[in-house]
């Protein structure tokens, strides 16, 4: 009862957090579309006397205004947006100084060169924040006058800059990545709530959604401040959650080593980063250098934890003994490396070293993080990662069913409240309402299970029925004494129940060798070789099915039977000829000795999918009946 209550409380809190973050992301995107952050296209660095132009981006307002690298900005003055800018004149139509380019759009429309004020009252730019405030007052396409000192000599004429909207292409790409994370995490949690580490994986996906989807605009109103702190908190948690997941999947390493006390150390750097942000905002003086160093610290933290997680997945993959687990870890490891290495080499390291590679390269390195959720989703769909089979087939149906139930639930509550308030006396009105709500809540969960059962039967009828059919079939096999009838039942029922294309049964002979005793759907060349093997043993080399001497006695999984390079050449030809993907032993115990009397082989489903881990477990149970 306590566990059920805890699970419901946990689900409620996660649901509230998910809905809140999604709504916040929608409002954040809406605010960003209405508020454009002005940008002059220059990377400024705080120095003695003002701001030094570290890099002037090509084809941006700063370059078009004539600003050069190493120029010193000592002051700035802003003017309202000019009529020409409101009329839609682009920034490349204007030169710096007091001239209008001949035959320019401004000249053709009769717009004269702006009259520079006789006396400009510059605002000193000792810190980057001074320039940012001035640009906000200017607005997008406004007019800003820069006081520039070049090679130690102040320029006679102020440099006029027309700020443009900041490039948010990378931010939009990261939002897509965040949405992918949220979809994957939601379906994993919804499909298999009780699966090991499912809640942990969902938390990682939810925090990743907050990290990539929430982008503060710089407006810094209450909404923008909430977005900012949610983003800081997500950046503190996400790498630690990912490393914790790598430590927990496929097994709890710290628990196995009896060092669970080390787990807080995984989250300590993130907590320290969050503390740095809090101290910087509340106590330290706001400077561009401080903001840059904090962002560098966060980037180093991200890259380090990502690399550690990748190494852990690589180590787990090299040590995995289960075939299905190796396939899961293969894709998880590949996706992690594809995401982490470009991010570290082309984004994190240049940023930490204050290098300035081309923006396209850094954007691509940032967007490489999309490989992580994509390969996780591929492992989920293709190789049943975390037992989430049929996620995408039934997730939408479950969502609709739950939404319908919630609507019915609150509708009943509203009707009961209306009836209680109109028909019961005041003395018992409140008690009647409480009893009615408790009664409705009591029938809500059974009703939910009933509707989801209907959804199962409606959307995936054969998978709803086959589990019960397999159990009943296995019990019937244990009472069958006729060997030929037993073999015929297996090769006839399994294809119909699991919808697999090929089934074969191999029986152990007195010599210890296996022979093909019955089959369904095998190629004609395989059955011909089996017939020849009965006459001249050796045509089929089934040595790879020696479960008695194998390290893993549960089953053998071949992802591609045509490419089994780990087997001897003769056994490779046999595996390719049979073209089966699963081999499950039927074992008996004689005293203290257990040996294999038969092996059941199965291929993929008719649709070309692999079996789920639940399917394989049921087949192992079925094999124990024989």
Assembly status: single chain
Number of helices: 21
Percent of residues in β-strands:
5-15%
Helix percentage: 55-70%
Strand tally is 14
- Please compute the radius of gyration using only Cα atoms: 34 Å
Explained architecture:
This protein has 626 residues and is α+β, with helices and mostly antiparallel strands. 59% of the residues lie in helices and 12% in strands. It has 21 helices and 14 strands. The strands form 3 sheets. Strands 2, 3, 4, 5, 6, 7 and 8 form a 7-stranded antiparallel sheet that branches. A 5-stranded antiparallel sheet has the order 11-10-14-13-12. Helix 1 (2-34) packs parallel to helix 7 (198-213) and helix 17 runs parallel beside helix 21 (613-625). The longest helix has 34 residues, at 426-459. It is extended. The two termini are 39 Å apart. The relative contact order is 0.06.
Helix-strand blueprint:
Elements: H1 2-34, E1 38-39, E2 42-47, E3 50-56, H2 61-65, E4 72-79, H3 83-86, H4 105-108, E5 123-124, H5 128-138, E6 143-150, E7 153-154, E8 159-161, E9 164-165, H6 169-191, H7 198-213, H8 222-248, H9 253-256, H10 263-282, H11 288-319, H12 323-352, H13 359-367, H14 371-383, H15 391-423, H16 426-459, H17 461-478, H18 483-498, E10 503-508, E11 514-520, H19 524-535, E12 556-557, H20 569-578, E13 582-590, E14 593-602, H21 613-625
Antiparallel strand pairs: 1-9, 2-3, 3-4, 4-5, 4-6, 6-7, 6-8, 10-11, 10-14, 12-13, 13-14
Helix pairs in contact: 1-7, 6-7, 6-14, 6-15, 7-8, 8-10, 8-11, 10-11, 11-12, 12-13, 12-14, 15-16, 16-17, 17-18, 17-21
């Amino acid at each position: 009862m306590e566990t059920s209550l805890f699970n419901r409380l946990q689900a409620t809190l996660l649901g509230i957090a998910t809905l809140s973050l999604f709504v916040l992301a929608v409002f954040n995107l809406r605010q960003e579309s209405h508020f454009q952050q002005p940008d002059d296209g220059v990377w400024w660095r705080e120095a003695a006397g003002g701001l030094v132009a570290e890099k002037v981006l090509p084809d941006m307002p700063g370059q078009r205004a004539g600003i050069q690298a190493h120029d010193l900005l000592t002051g700035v003055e802003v003017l309202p947006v000019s009529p020409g800018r409101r009329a839609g004149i682009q920034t490349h139509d204007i030169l710096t100084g007091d001239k209008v380019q001949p035959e320019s759009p401004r000249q053709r429309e009769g717009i004269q060169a702006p009259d520079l004020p006789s006396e400009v009252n510059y605002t000193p730019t000792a810190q980057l924040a001074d320039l940012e405030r001035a640009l906000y007052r200017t607005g997008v396409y406004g007019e800003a006058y820069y006081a520039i000192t070049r090679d130690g000599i102040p320029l006679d004429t102020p440099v006029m800059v027309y700020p443009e909207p900041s490039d948010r292409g990378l931010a939009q790409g990261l939002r897509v990545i965040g949405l992918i994370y949220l979809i994957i995490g939601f379906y994993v949690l919804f499909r298999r709530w009780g699966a090991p580490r499912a809640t942990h994986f969902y938390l990682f996906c939810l925090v990743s959604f907050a990290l990539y989807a929430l982008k503060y605009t710089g407006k810094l109103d209450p909404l923008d401040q909430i977005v900012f702190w949610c983003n800081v908190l997500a950046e503190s948690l996400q790498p630690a959650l990912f490393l914790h997941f790598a430590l927990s999947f496929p097994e709890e390493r710290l628990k196995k080593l009896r060092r669970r006390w080390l787990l807080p150390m995984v989250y300590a750097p993130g907590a320290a980063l969050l503390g740095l942000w809090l101290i910087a905002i509340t106590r330290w003086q706001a400077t561009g250098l401080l903001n840059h160093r904090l962002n560098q610290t966060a980037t180093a933290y991200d890259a380090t934890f990502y690399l550690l997680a990748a190494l852990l997945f690589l180590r787990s993959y090299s040590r995995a003994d289960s075939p299905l687990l190796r396939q899961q870890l293969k894709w998880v490891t590949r996706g992690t490396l594809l995401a982490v290495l470009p991010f570290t080499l082309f984004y994190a390291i240049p940023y930490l070293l204050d290098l300035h590679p081309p923006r396209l390269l850094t954007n691509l390195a940032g967007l490489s993080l999309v490989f992580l959720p994509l390969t996780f989703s591929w492992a989920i769909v293709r190789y049943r990662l975390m037992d989430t089979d049929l996620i995408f087939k039934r997730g939408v149906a479950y969502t609709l069913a739950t939404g319908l139930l919630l609507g019915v639930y609150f509708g009943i509550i509203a009707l009961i409240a209306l009836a209680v308030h109109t028909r019961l006396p005041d003395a018992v009105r409140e008690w009647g309402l409480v009893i009615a709500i408790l009664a409705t809540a009591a029938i809500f969960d059974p009703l939910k299970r009933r509707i989801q059962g209907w959804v199962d039967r409606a959307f995936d009828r054969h998978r709803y029925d086959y589990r019960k059919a397999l159990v009943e079939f296995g019990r019937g096999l244990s009472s069958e004494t006729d060997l030929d009838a037993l073999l015929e039942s297996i090769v006839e029922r399994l294809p119909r129940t699991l919808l697999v294309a090929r089934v074969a049964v191999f029986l152990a002979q007195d010599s210890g060798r296996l022979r093909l005793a019955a089959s369904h759907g095998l190629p004609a060349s395989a059955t011909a070789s089996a017939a020849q093997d009965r006459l001249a043993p050796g045509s089929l080399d089934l040595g790879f099915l020696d479960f008695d001497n194998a390290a893993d006695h549960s089953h053998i999984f071949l992802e591609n039977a045509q490419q089994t390079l780990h087997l001897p050449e003769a056994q490779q030809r046999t595996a390719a000829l049979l073209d089966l993907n699963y081999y499950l032993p039927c074992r008996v115990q004689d005293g203290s000795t257990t040996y294999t009397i038969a092996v059941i082989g199965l291929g993929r489903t008719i649709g070309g999918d692999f079996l789920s881990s639940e399917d394989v477990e049921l087949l192992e149970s079925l094999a124990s009946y024989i």
